[in-house]
Amino acid sequence: MPEDKPVYLVLSALPYANGVKHIGNLVGSLLPADVYARFLRLQGADVIYVCGTDEHGTTIEVAALKAGVPVQAFADKYHAKQKEIYGKWGLSFDYFGRTSSGENHATTQEIFKAIYDKGYVIEKEMQTPYCLFDKRFLPDRYIEGTCPHCGFEGARGDQCEKCGKVLDPIDLKKPHCNVCGKSEIEFRKTKHLFLQLQKLSGQLKTWITEQEQWPQNARNFALQWIAQGLHERCITRDLSWGVKVPMPGYEDKVFYVWFDAPIGYVSFTKEWARTKGDSALWEHYWKNRDCKIVNVLGKDNLAFHTVIWPSMLMASGYADLPSQVKSLEFLNLEGKKFSTSRNWGINSDEALEWFPADYWRYYLCSILPEQGDADFSLHELMQKSNKDLADAVGNLVHRCLSFTHMNFEGKVPAPGELQPADNDFWRAVKKQVASSEESFYAYRWQEALREAMQIAHESNKYFNDGEPWKKVKEGEEGKRKAATTVFMTLQAVRSLAVVLQPFIPSSSQKIFDYLKLGSIEGSSWNSAAEQKLPAGHEIAPMAEIKPLFTKVDPAQLAKVKAILEARLKPDALGKPPAKA
RNA sequence: AGCGGGGUAGGGUAGCCAGGAGUGCCCGCUGGGCUCAUAACCCGGAGACCACAGGUUCAAAUCCUGUCCCCGCUACCA
User: Fold this and answer.
1) Which nucleotide is at minimal CA–C1' distance from A372?
2) What confidence tens digit (pLDDT) does each residue in A506-535 have?
3) Residue A301, CB, strand B, below 7 Å
4) Does at least one atom of strand B sit less than 7 Å from the CB of A548?
5) Per-residue pLDDT tens digits for A40-92
6) pLDDT value, residue A380
7) How is domain A377-550 classified at the CATH fold level?
8) Distance CA A345, CA A568 (A)
9) Rounded to an integer, what distance in angstroms lies between the CA atom of residue A29 and that of residue A12?
C-alpha cells in the first residue's frame, strides 16, 4: 500500500439475514455507503468497503423454525440471496461476509476475553421465561399476554403496544409463547453476563465530545443517552445458535446477537485481508490512526454505533474507534411507513424487476434522507427517471454523439479558437466538479448528486446556445465553431460520466463505452475537470449508441402501484408496528 | 413524559450550523425559441405573508423565546 494515500474503511450497517430487505434498508446504509466508497475510489484513496449479513439471534432461529429448516440452512439461504441482490444493485463491496463465520466467532471470543480481563463484565442471575413445549427460553418479544395496565390481550413481553407502557414479562397476565402459542411457560433463573457500560461513560463522553466531525444529531443523541445514565447490559442468551461463550458454566449459552454483530466489521476486514494474501493487513484499517473508519447507518442504529460498539472497542482496546458516523433518517413509501407486517414496502429484489438499478439508485440518492425522513413516491421515481436521467443526461449524450457521427465521422473534432462562451462553459463544468467533491467530503451526498447533475444542464444549454446544427451549414468558419462546441460538449459528457459514477455506475460505464474509453473504474475524479478526449479520438459506431435510459411509462407505473396497493393490509391497531 | 427531527409556491425538496432583497432545484401550469436529439433541449411568465406569535439586529426562512401541528427514538427487537 502506498503511504501517501488517505486511508478509509467504509462500513455500512449489517443487514439482518432474516429475509430479503426492502429498499428502506438499502437507502439507510448500504446504498449511501456504496456511493461514498465509489467516490473515494475515484479520489484515489486507499479505501475498502466492507459489509455482510448479521445472522444470529432469536429472530432468525424462530424464523427458521417456522420455515421448517435448520438455522444454518436458513442463514445460508438469505446470505446468498442478499449477496446476489446487492450485486445487482451495483453495491461494490470489497468484502461481504457473515457473522456466523469462524473468524467472527473467534474474534468475538477474543474481544470478549479482553473485555472480561479488564473487568468490564459481571455475572448476574435473572428470571427468564421458558417455554416447556418448545424447550427454549423466550426473549421478551416472544412472550405475549394480557397487559397488566390496560388489559390489552396482545401485549408483548417488552412493551404493550396499546398503552405504550414498558413491561417486564413476569408481569404479564395469562402469558403464552409466541412461537408455539401454548401457555406452558415457567420462569427460570439463569446466569448471564453483563457489560458494565456505566464504567465507561466518562471515557465515552470525552471521546464523543471530541468527535466534532459527527453530524449534530448523532452527537446529541449519544451524549443525551450517556447523560441519562448508562447501565449494564446483558450480553448473553440462552440459545444454541450464535457465538459460544468461552466461560465455564456457559456451555448452553451464546452471545447476544448485538454483541457479535458489530464485531463482524472487524472479522470481515480480517477475512478480506486473508483473501489479499496478507492476514495482517486488517490492522492497516483498524489499528492505524490515519485511517478514517466511516460507519453509515440508519438512525435506528445510532445507539449501537455511537455508544455500545465504541464502548466495546474501548473496553477491549482491540482496535480503533470509528471516526465518522453518517446516519440516515427513514424512508416512507407514499406517505406511509415501511412495514413488513402490513406488507407495505418494496423489496430490493422485486424493485429490480420493475426498473433498472440505476433508476432506483438515482432516485433514492436524490431524496436521500439526510435531513429528515424522506417520502418515496412511485410517481416521483418516474418523473425523476424521465426528466433527469432520460431527458437531461440520456438525451444530452445521445444528441451530442449522434451529431458527432453525422458531422464529424464519429471522431472527436479538433476545436477551433476558444471564444469566451466556450471558456465560461468549461469553467462552469470545473466548478460543478469541485462543488460536488466538496459536498461529498461534507457528507452531503444528496447535494453532491445535484451538483454533479448540473453539468448535464450546463451542457445542454451550452450545446443549444452554440447551435452547431446551424453553424455546420455556414462554411468553414461555421464548421470550426461547431467543432468547438461538439469538442467541448463531448469533454463535458465524459466529465459527467465520472462524477455520476458513484451514483449510477453502470450508466456511467455505458457512456464510457460509447466514448470508447474502456473501464471507468480506473479513471480519477480529478480527470473530470480536464479535457481528456483528444481530437481525432474515435467513438463507438452509431449502431451501438442506444438511448441510455428508456422512459418509464405511466401504464407500467400504474401496474406497479396496483401490485403494492393490492397487498396492503391494515393491522389490528390501525397503525403499523415498528419496522422490520 | 423525555429527547431528536420536521412544518418553505398546487405537490416535492434545498437553503438554516457560519443572518443580507424569498435565492435555487424537480414536477405541474403557462408564453416563446430551436429542430442536433429519447415529442427531447433552451429562454421567459404566473404562483409562497418561508407553521404561528414575539424578540435580537441596519438586516431573519436563517439567531433567541414561546405556541400549535406532523414524525421518529427511548437500550433485555434486530
Assistant:
1) B5
2) 999 999 999 999 999 889 999 999 999 999
3) yes
4) yes
5) 999 999 999 999 999 998 888 888 888 889 999 999 999 999 999 999 999 99
6) 85
7) Isoleucyl-tRNA Synthetase; Domain 1 (1.10.730)
8) 9
9) 5
CATH C-level class of A7-118+198-328: alpha beta
For A253, the grid coordinates are 449459552
Q: What 3-state class would DSSP assign to A134?
A: coil
Structurally, what CATH architecture does the domain formed by A121-195 represent? Beta Complex (2.170)
Does A371 contact strand B, using a CB cutoff of 7 Å? yes
pTM over 0.90: yes
In this prediction, the answer to ipTM > 0.95 reads: no
Residue A543: CB less than 7 A from any atom in strand B:
no
Query: Are A294 and A29 spatial neighbours (Cβ–Cβ below 8 Å)?
Result: no
Determine whether the distance from the CB of A17 to the nearest atom of strand B is below 7 Å.
no
CA A323 – C1' B16 distance (Å)? 26
Residue of A13, A29, A134, A63 whose CA lies nearest to A340: A63
Q: Nearest Cα to A193, choosing from A315, A19, A346?
A: A315
Rounded to whole angstroms, the Cα distance separating A86 from A84 reads 6
Tens of pLDDT, residue by residue over A310-334, are 999 999 999 999 888 888 877 877 7
Domain ranges of chain A: 7-118+198-328, 121-195, 377-550
Q: Is the CB of A342 under 7 A from strand B?
A: no
Instruction: Provide, rounded to the nearest whole percent, the portion of chain A with pLDDT above 90.
Output: 53
